[in-house]
Amino acid sequence: MVINTNISALNAAAQLMQSSSALSQSLQRLSSGSQITSPADDPAGLAVSMQLTSELGRVHGASNNVSDATSFSQTQDGYLQQVNTAFSRMSELAVEAQDVTKTTNDRALYQQEFTALGAYIDNVSTQSFNGVSLFDGQTLNVTTDPNGDTFAMVGINLGNTTYTTATGDDITTISGAQKAVTDTESAIDQLASDRANIGANEESLSYYTNQLSSLSNNLSAANSQIADVDVASESTTYAKENILVQTGTAMLAQANSLPQSVLKLLS
Fold first, then answer.
1. Domain tally for the chain?
2. β-strands 128-129, 132-133: how paired?
3. Same domain, yes or no, for 192 and 245?
4. Tens digit of pLDDT at every position of the chain (267 positions)
5. Which domain, by its residues, includes 261?
């Protein structure tokens, strides 16, 4: 029996230190919701989690791009619906202007409305979405995935000659009205084609939206397996380590009292 070196107390203290450290780590995991509270917990897992988190950020960025592009296309179609109504009315006016019972003054009134509708269409051709022209005919490349791949969104050009010829017609004469009927019909045909292109753009963008949503969910699930704490399992670990700390503290107290038995030998 020795006094200077209490092996039992040293062993109990070492066990208590390990239990206290494990208890502290368990508390950190439960309070943070993450099972990686420091790089030392899982170096490889931390690296993979960081890569997954970075890719998730890029996926969210691409998803925002696709969402904005969809809004852009929907705005285009909203305008073109009104343009279609305007051209239909202009075509109707051109037919009415061919009525032989109408006077020159009557046709001038038809021309006044015809011109106003044409001016509306010309004004629509200059509209923009967040500073980006809606109808300049430019193809827009939309980023659709975290790797930077793009989808070419077909542009719509309301300034092409098919449209401008129709909006510039003069129906103050019967011959002019006859020409306007042909021109507005051509414009409506072109408009139908342009709206079909917008529909194709929106359909493709919806597929990319669904694809990105699925990718985001899968990446989040993969990252969760690595980084998120299993509360049920960790609660069990916490309870175990808490008991070990309490018993270790009690045993250390007992081990520290052992040298006092030497006094009995000296009395």
1. 2
2. antiparallel
3. no
4. 566 677 777 787 888 788 887 777 777 777 767 777 677 767 888 888 889 889 999 999 999 999 999 999 999 999 999 999 999 999 999 999 999 999 999 999 999 999 999 999 999 999 999 999 999 999 999 999 999 999 999 999 999 999 999 999 999 999 999 999 999 999 999 999 999 999 999 999 999 999 999 999 999 899 888 877 777 877 887 788 788 788 878 877 777 777 677 667 666
5. 7-27+229-266
CATH number of the domain residue 144 falls in: 1.20.1330.10
- In angstroms, the first-to-last Cα distance of the chain is 16
Asked whether the whole model's pTM tops 0.70, one would answer yes
**Length of the chain (residues):** 267
What are the DSSP calls for 85-151, one per residue?
HHHHHHHHHHHHTT-TT--HHHHHHHHHHHHHHHHHHHHHTT-EETTEESSB---EEEE-STT--EE
Residue 115: inside a domain: yes
